[in-house]
Amino acid sequence: MAISLATIIILGLSFNKIFEKIRLPGLLGMLILGILLGPYGFNIISDEILNISSDLRKIALIVILLRAGLGIKKETLNKVGKPAIKMSFIPGLFEGFTIMFIANKILGMTIIESGILGFIIAAVSPAVVVPQMIKFMDRKIGEKKGIPTLILAGASIDDVIAITLFSTFLGLYGGKNINIAKQLFNIPLSIILGILIGVLIGLILIKIFKHYHIRDTKKVLIILGTAIFFTGLEDLLSNIIPIASLLGVMTIGFIMLEKYSTVANRLASKFNKIWVFAELLLFVLVGAQVNIHVAISSGLIGILIIGLGLLSRSIGVLISLIGTDFDVKERLFCVISYMPKATVQAAIGAVPLASGVESGELILAMAVLSIIITAPIGAMGIKLAGESWLERE
């Protein structure tokens, strides 16, 4: 296990640097490295690490979401409020239902199976999107109109909606007595609870930090540990009450910046340093989940369906941006930023197969294919379009 971890660190840093040297996103190099090192490549990563891969990826995601929250300013959030709300559900619903309809007609899958497929693929990847947006925020690219903040806010809720609808269709397939109205009500409920608990945790931590002298490094560890417990609470209560814990994690950072900005700015710098290591784990281990051989089995039809889904999502993004003062290039940047798939598809792509869904193998193949197609293209597109099309302060 130790040797595998050392391999991930050394090669991950090397691939990251090489890809940045050729003006490509470093995360793309780490994803490719993960594919090469993973069980479907040269099988170098030990089983011990692969067995805890989902937990390591979640911790890495928590790190970057906390860092994202520490960079979101209230005035910027107010500026992009309405478009962010529309971006959080319109593009995802457009893509999910489009794929559901096409898969039903072309592949002959049942409506429920098509719905499972549609909302696995519909989730945008915070792992790919959030780090890129933070880089733009730090460099004051697109910040005048709040574009990175808009993408951050919308993408974090997009996942909540996609996963809830996926769970609903999967429950319907299993013959469970699913109350559709209740499931739909759970979406805003989970978002509200996630934000409220995040606010509460943020305020409690601020009170502790103001009353007790604690070094910044220990503050960071306290925040990180608390956030991990928070996400564990979501899993513990999943059958009782829904909580969008990852959205709440971002809220913790936001509250820290709003109520205790002097400390929050220092903590953001600390989280940047932790992210150097967390980023390696996240993208290499996401890449290790990708089975190219399975993806190939879905063939050209799979590429066509994913492409039509992305086209529908893009239309949803453009509809969401109606009424904003964004120019054409800025709108196209938002379209590109909503393309990448990775974390959610890697995490739940195999769930239908494990649950006995008849089309489970095909759904897994399509989920993997969506990562292979959209993660590299989206990552490169975000970097190039952001640097070329967004206004610098």
Report on this structure.
- It is a single chain.
- With 393 residues, the protein is mainly α.
- It has a single domain, classed as Na+/H+ antiporter like fold (Up-down Bundle).
- The protein is 79% helix and 0% strand.
- The protein is built from 19 helices and no strands.
- It has helices at 2-21, 26-37, 47-51, 53-69, 74-79, 81-107, 111-121, 126-138, 147-173, 180-211, 216-236, 245-259, 261-288, 292-296, 299-320, 328-337, 343-348, 351-354, 360-389.
- Helix 4 packs antiparallel against helix 13 (261-288), helix 9 (147-173) crosses helix 10 (180-211) and helix 12 (245-259) packs antiparallel against helix 13.
Task: State the secondary-structure class.
Answer: mainly alpha
Q: What is the correct CATH architecture?
A: Up-down Bundle
Helix content: over 70%
Q: Determine the number of helices (DSSP H or I, runs of at least 4 residues).
A: 19
Kindly report how far apart the N and C termini lie: 45 Å
Low-confidence stretches: none
Q: How would you concisely characterize the structure shown here?
A:
With 393 residues, the chain is mainly α. The chain has 19 helices and no strands.
